[in-house]
Amino acid sequence: MRAITTVPPSGGITLSQLDLEKGDGVKVRTLFTGICGTDKEIALGKLSFARPEKGRSLVLGHEAVGVVDDSSGYSSFKEGDIVVPMVRRPGGCRMCRLGRQDFCEDGDFVEAGIRGKNGFMREEFLEDPRFLVKVDDPSTVNLAVLTEPLKNVMKIKETFQFLRGRIPWYCQDSTLSCKNLYVFGTGTEGLLISMVFKSLGMNVVEVNRHPLGENIMKFLDDNRISYIDTSSERLDIKVRDMSMDAAIDAVGAMDVLKEITDNISNNGIAIMFGTSGQMPSSTFDILERVVDRNVTVVGSVDGAKIHYSEAIDFIETHGKTMHMDRIITGKYSPEDLKIFTEKEKEEIKKVIAWS
Amino acid sequence: MRAITTVPPSGGITLSQLDLEKGDGVKVRTLFTGICGTDKEIALGKLSFARPEKGRSLVLGHEAVGVVDDSSGYSSFKEGDIVVPMVRRPGGCRMCRLGRQDFCEDGDFVEAGIRGKNGFMREEFLEDPRFLVKVDDPSTVNLAVLTEPLKNVMKIKETFQFLRGRIPWYCQDSTLSCKNLYVFGTGTEGLLISMVFKSLGMNVVEVNRHPLGENIMKFLDDNRISYIDTSSERLDIKVRDMSMDAAIDAVGAMDVLKEITDNISNNGIAIMFGTSGQMPSSTFDILERVVDRNVTVVGSVDGAKIHYSEAIDFIETHGKTMHMDRIITGKYSPEDLKIFTEKEKEEIKKVIAWS
Amino acid sequence: MRAITTVPPSGGITLSQLDLEKGDGVKVRTLFTGICGTDKEIALGKLSFARPEKGRSLVLGHEAVGVVDDSSGYSSFKEGDIVVPMVRRPGGCRMCRLGRQDFCEDGDFVEAGIRGKNGFMREEFLEDPRFLVKVDDPSTVNLAVLTEPLKNVMKIKETFQFLRGRIPWYCQDSTLSCKNLYVFGTGTEGLLISMVFKSLGMNVVEVNRHPLGENIMKFLDDNRISYIDTSSERLDIKVRDMSMDAAIDAVGAMDVLKEITDNISNNGIAIMFGTSGQMPSSTFDILERVVDRNVTVVGSVDGAKIHYSEAIDFIETHGKTMHMDRIITGKYSPEDLKIFTEKEKEEIKKVIAWS
Amino acid sequence: MRAITTVPPSGGITLSQLDLEKGDGVKVRTLFTGICGTDKEIALGKLSFARPEKGRSLVLGHEAVGVVDDSSGYSSFKEGDIVVPMVRRPGGCRMCRLGRQDFCEDGDFVEAGIRGKNGFMREEFLEDPRFLVKVDDPSTVNLAVLTEPLKNVMKIKETFQFLRGRIPWYCQDSTLSCKNLYVFGTGTEGLLISMVFKSLGMNVVEVNRHPLGENIMKFLDDNRISYIDTSSERLDIKVRDMSMDAAIDAVGAMDVLKEITDNISNNGIAIMFGTSGQMPSSTFDILERVVDRNVTVVGSVDGAKIHYSEAIDFIETHGKTMHMDRIITGKYSPEDLKIFTEKEKEEIKKVIAWS
Known about the structure:
Chain A is α/β, with parallel strands linked by helices. Chain A has nine helices and 19 strands. In chain A, strands 3, 5, 6, 10, 11, 18 and 19 form a seven-stranded mixed beta sheet that branches.
């Protein structure tokens, strides 16, 4: 079968011919795989921790949806079930044994398509049924390829709900309708974050440093999410008179952290998800505001099986009404390897269709 | 009566003659007042937000212990009671109305001896009984002047205990005995933090960038707290093979934040209390580790009445056995105004005795 | 206009002619009102705490959905908006001032249609916009009359999520898919509870002591909720080999509390919502199991504005797919006063259509 | 060596001669063992779940303090260390593997001196160092025999602090000084509960249904804990005008549960620890108040190693000032077997001195 492979950590991208692995597991036929920044970095040889499962090459792909071709006697699945495979697989630490490998204590895990385990950019794969999550509504199969990036948002939501418990962090009327959330980044993760937190009843403001294309602007408008382009408008909550009660970052640049801590409200919550390695453009101090205002800055990475389930539920319940299809801006065949290196106009999420 | 005053925000320090204010309240005779970095900054005109209660001058002093001279009919106190006055007084926001002005949402509060309210560096003051906290054990009166700095630590402890709830953040045997806490700063706050967290059963490591004097070293040794002098030894947990599971900062320098995020464990908790305004010596990125390791960095400022009570309880129960008296390194008379500008050898906390 | 009134606490039920109250507020035209056990009890004079707003008679009705007829200059609403009015209005206690009158500390609140405030069983009413919650999707207007009973379930969910934090209360794989929830009662509240907790991924078992009609059985089957009829089958988890990890009661009988505590698992969570006043059929001891198994039994009453919002969101997202319309078993005109005293075959929720 | 043994579950009490077990472990010489209701029940053959470690007889005793005689090469202890052994030993469930066998999910544990493991009423025993907790201050060795009952209180405190997080459950000034806690039972556990919660700053009221002896009354007075004798005074908070904000039960009778739910405030927290099996004197309904007032009733059993540590810390810091020695009302030699069947006048805790 066809498979998209790389040779980590040096990179490169090849359409190879592979056999299905031998062994136990549910046989899944891949329908769609998404490509994201991590895939591109691996392909460019920029991700130092990328490593093969064995031998020298690694099948890419960690965002996927497929259909069960042979349930191999596992009663939890049957042929025809739509399924999403999980990326990170637990090691032996306390948190991994609790099913929370997203909080792995020692880094001793593998991640399909990234480190130590072949991914899903191939026509078929065998999978341990414990790491498959079922999609109930087959009509959402096109959106279900977003489950993997969306599960990160569901963990971010869990983190946010936990941190709010430090004080009665809600409005006079018990809702979140008076609270403004600034989301940094307008890629897939940024947009998914905006959707999920909008559905919690917050005022959501997207922030980036360039104008957006028509497609995204329409997505934001339809979901009543506003936008600040910091290339033309200063992000200064004093000027704008709209407090920054919480912030979530999907960019990963230190300058964004400065923008957040410069503006965030007392008792503000900032959840950091992006990691670009971008160094700050100047030195600065965040501590005075973080301390004097009781600000929380917390990192959130990955998500557990519960978050995959919640992501699928969100797609089934909000995917159509919130126009999630606008996030998928291109479908390609496995032969179109240039999508790993070229960027389309107004590109958000590119998807490879496998059949 | 004698009072130590300044003219904020321009500074200066004067021993003045004042009358007791008119009005309601319990009359308290001051026994001891501590002086801290904030007092020195106000005296030097470096604290821009310092402001008088009315007129032009401000009585300094926010760390105090006194004795009730006249309870003025308030039943909650009687003559002879040892009391500690609170610093921050609530405004009208939601959190202030809940008694948690340490989480004030709008900054609309006053702080005795700092902004908008006269402090306690005077022989007597009238006080609203709601803002006096009683010391039960008169034998701890000398240590009770540390209540105010210690109440900050009690809020830090509350914050730590809350944040631990994100996951089962404890050892295999349910205790904290396998967890290492690094405390940055060896001034009063740093040492008090070390004491309180040592009493929770953690391994506590103090960190600073110079050798310590004999007095502090003995204090640390007696309390089985270890010390790293980063001027002679690298703080690198890989080299030391002693993980940094949590960190608390009482320095307030961005370089310390970098040291923490460079070294902290997965799911680590960093609580920031210091604010020196020191800019980083170079640019750096903290996001990759904060995100990939689910690290929490949280600011904690001030404390509520409950924390004053807990501080007094801690002094009464651990003050003697943990040698808290070693933190007080000098007692002075109100006339010794040079203590605001000169630094003693091995100075930690200097105290003014008022009678 | 027509209005359904009673004379509390003695009861009775009359179709009266009333004028719209004078004063400020958004003018709402009533579309549907639901009737529930509380309405019937007030009508029968069995609810001792029922009381008029002023004078002697009270307009009944606390479950309602309407349409804005005149927004009276309030910018938060416009004509044509579909809205649900809240029942309980805050008093002056700490929790009421936080917007959490569902946790009122002193009982000093009014409840529309129940105590101290006229309800919504009338053609029109004026309402303070703070107590109106907007329905975004007009196609759910028929189901939106279930918002009020459903908001109770949303608070139950909040309570459940909070209590779970005592320990890592989840399955080996981080989800709730291994956890069995027993719901007692198959009226409106019981069925709504089952729906909401099913959507969290739990195995839900409905329990009652009689066979169910075809309509409810189909509702349960369609939602993959199982049913135990304790008139024909013993509720004994040892016999059934299906643990009771959590239980939620919408019956309010002490015998149900016994059934729960006799069967619930270690670290089990029982949330009590029903209050029928039914005395137990025999004396019994619940403490041995509650203590030895670390069981939590917690009462949950009412819900805050956030729960109304969540209820509307749930109706919009799950109402159709989970067949919520099967809960509404009859629509009547305001003239059909016999619906307060007669019970239909297979009746669950009866609704009065006002236009 | 001498050992006090029984033959569970039939009971009986014998002073036997035994050899020290063979195997690994720290060798501990027993100093004191406490006897409690459980020991008496086992001796009377009333505890159905009591069972031997092997063979037919069981060494009694689960409350103990000893001194390390031979650390057998384990570096965590040295000869002369004062130690308290833990009672419950973990099985293989998720919570046991987390070190929280007090939340054991499947009951698959052993308890020294009670079920499946020999206890400490013998001159010496070998112990796995993981289950020994060190007493730092040798001057508290007499009180340290109370560590085991006190560790239950520390878990109760953990439970209370957790449950308080449901809402801002504190006074206007952030403390607990306005909150009244009623403690039911004046035996060892009741008194220890009163001490610990008094130290949190609450108003504590002890309740029992008979007059107390002079010794206990003095203990309560010295600690400013008040007392209600319900044989002469009705427990009716309306009459007394002192709200019951929280309640902790160390009796275990259903009639106490009724007294609590009849009187407890809105949002009240009731923690149940006692289990006497006493049936209620009449049938009653607790649900109306539990539900309408959002009351929490939670069971708490046993404690984890962290709670043993906290108990030892509490004894070291509060034991002398709070007159904990008054709880120990008699010291006996191992030969005095009648102490298992006879009750002394004003008896609270009886202790056997082994050397």
